[in-house]
Design a protein that fits this description.
Length: about 280
Amino acid sequence: MRSRYDNPDLTPPWKRQQPAPEVPAEPDLVVEEVTTGFCGAVIRCEKTAQGPTVTLEDRFGKHRVFPMEPRGFLLEGRVVTLVRPRATAPATPRRTASGSLAVPGARARVARAGRIYVEGRHDAELVERVWGDDLRIEGVVVEYLEGVDDLPAIVRDFAPGPDARLGVLVDHLVPGSKESRIAAEVTGDHVLVVGHPYIDIWEAVKPSSAGIAAWPEVPRGQDWKTGVCRALGWRENTGAAWQRILSSVHSYKDLRPELLGRVEELIDFVTVGVS
């Protein structure tokens, strides 16, 4: 039988490291990582193969991911161990992913005659991810074009009017581009075409949120999405790459302002003043 005197700890009590208090890593809790000195608010906790991690956002909007190790953080100058918050029944969110005030118990409105069109499936999925709650309350349906070349025919068939406005979000809407010429052709009193400057909707996601330093430059003549995967060392499967990017988007904070303003403008256009 082993004695309590086997392998005694001869460290004086006053020199022994005391366990740090455990603190749930609740969203918006501000802590400092002890090794790097990075200070930021908790954005989210995730379970990974290497153990739980926490993502912090500093006052400049920069994100860093850290392992949730014992005694790994300072809270108001005191060493603590961050732990994942206990799972609780979902509380009614105060804001939607787009930053709008949430309406508890609100039911989806019957779809309006007006529509918002985006260029492709990825665009539609991103808009749904961030503005889905708002769109359902407003009764706005989002559809996709599969390319801007078909837009003039779609506008003619849609026959927009005062009670059926049409809003269109276009990729790479810059002066002198094909997209800008088509936008000018169809824009009218009841049609609003807006866009962002990026070649593809992928670029509208902040690089820090997607876990990369920056979106790479892809040489002309090369498929942009495939080129991005190649430059980042990702498997050249654009569908899988998009799911990876989309999963990093949790709210409007993960998107660049050039997209945020345009989508809000379209929602206002198809809903304001329309019964």
